[in-house]
Amino acid sequence: MAKKQASNASRIFARLKRSWRVRTERLPHHLHLIKKRLKPDAGGKAEPLAGRFCLNPFTQFDLEQGGAAFTCCSGWLPTPIGKLSQQQSLMDIWNGQTIQRIRASMYDGSFRYCRHDVCPHIQNNSLPSVEEAESHPVLGEFVQRRQTRISEPPVFINLVNDPSCNLYCPSCRSERINYRDGPEYEEISSIQHRLLDPLLNDPTERDFTISVTGSGDPFASRTYRDLLYSLDGSRFPNLKFSLQTNGVLLTPRNWQRMSGIHANISQVIVSFDAATAGTYARTRRGGDWDQLVLNCEFLGQKRCDGELKFLRFDFVVQKENYREIPDFVELARELGADRVLFSRLMDWGTWPRHEFQEQCVWHEDHPQREDFLQLMRHPILSAPDVDMGNMTPFRTMALEAGSYL
Question: Which residue in 179, 177, 176 sits closest to 286, CA to CA?
């Protein structure tokens, strides 16, 4: 009995130690992003965006691990807006001083809390105009009156509170993380319930979206599976689910386990970061290329049959995979995707700084920059099903400098 208790205590201590290390590793990263938000890398300038508007601070609530709250991807807008707790509710945070200042920066056109260099909407010039925001069916009146307090709760809930994942990609983490039980799981589950229970306890016709997940994988996480497999979506006819996954565990069997919300699934986003098995083995550690392709063929058929409304495949550009950019577009089309999205590698603190820089082939002093720019000129990237995201400035730069050879 004593040995068993000692063993249990050791496991709990190890989990707590790992959880603390993960959190402390991410803290310097967030501080680095906050300092950097007006110091862009090549490809973007932190200039005022007069006449443009972003509705994210008026619509989006991101829940990160430990209850930290943001109003956009924290890599794009790294200022936290609060912490969900017994002392601070969703609506307390939603109209707190920090988010009101962020909203004010949309009105004055400065976007001073945003990382202009990596936000894909700034980089690909897809932000709506102020006039378009003023005509928004729900928020138009708030924008017209330049209000920074919003009486309506957020309509886009982004769950990024559980890092549990079946992969351990070098761009994201140094080891596999999966919280199935113990204090980390209990905390993650408790905080998620604190956010979602008021929204899902009673049937409603309210129109809102829950996104799962940019922090790990929906089907590797016990917390997320509990939500996706048990919810009766018919009680929430206007609720939409956006699923973001590495695709390996989104098998036909797990798709069927979500039968209660099939009608609520608005889109599935699958991260590939490769177009071949060899490159995938380097960029997506712990993955299974053959299983991924099989699962995506299944999703493509669901899209073709109209059972899935939108299917997107994503590709984070880095030194390991940039030569496969054109092939990835072709692969996505073969598998039935509506769109592909390319994005720049972000520094999540998992690599030493010099190793991260080595992956950034778009940097001016990178030895493979010219080869990268040549690929950026490829004509396939001008197709309507290709979204270059925050890689857009590099394609523009490449086309201005010459044509594809």
Answer: 176
- Of 322, 235, 318, 244, nearest to 73 (Cα)? 244
Distance CA 131, CA 143 (A): 9
Neighbours of 381 (CB within 10 A): 22
5: left (phi over 0), alpha (psi -120 to 50) or beta: alpha
Residue 395 CB coordination number (10 Å): 20
3-state helix, strand and coil shares in percent for the chain, rounded to the nearest 5: 45, 15, 40
Which tokens is 188 given? 């993650």
pTM, rounded to two decimals: 0.88
pLDDT digits (tens, 9 = 90+) for 337-354: 999 999 999 998 889 999
**Tokens encoding 405:** 């050879």
* Residue for token pair 């495949």: 313
Q: Where in 256-405 does DSSP place strands (E)?
A: 265-271, 311-317, 339-344, 386-387
List pLDDT tens digits, range 275-322: 999 999 999 999 999 999 999 999 999 999 999 999 999 999 999 999
Amino acid code (one letter) for 165: C
Euclidean distance between CA atoms 311 and 356, whole angstroms = 30
The rounded Cα 241 to chain-centroid distance in angstroms is 14
Q: Is the dihedral of CA 338, 344, 345, 348 positive or negative?
A: negative
What CA–CA distance (Å, rounded) separates 158 from 210?
6
Which pairs from 396-402 meet CB under 8 Å and 24+ separation?
397/43, 397/373, 398/373, 398/374, 401/373, 402/377
Cα–Cα dist 23/232, whole Å:
34
For the segment 94-117, what is each residue's pLDDT rounded down to a tens digit? Answer: 999 999 999 999 999 999 999 999
Task: Report whether 43 contacts 397 (CB < 8 A).
Answer: yes
157 neighbors 211 (Cβ within 8 angstroms): yes
Using CB atoms within 10 Å of the CB of residue 333, give its burial: 0 to 12 exposed, 13 to 18 middle, 19+ buried: middle
By CB atoms closer than 10 A (0-12, 13-18, 19+), residue 147 is middle
Q: For 26-82, how does the pLDDT look when each residue is reduced to its tens digit (9 = 90+)?
A: 444 444 443 443 333 333 445 679 899 999 999 999 999 999 999 999 999 999 999
Give the whole-angstrom CA distance, residue 208 versus residue 211.
Answer: 10
Do 212 and 224 touch, CB atoms closer than 8 A? yes
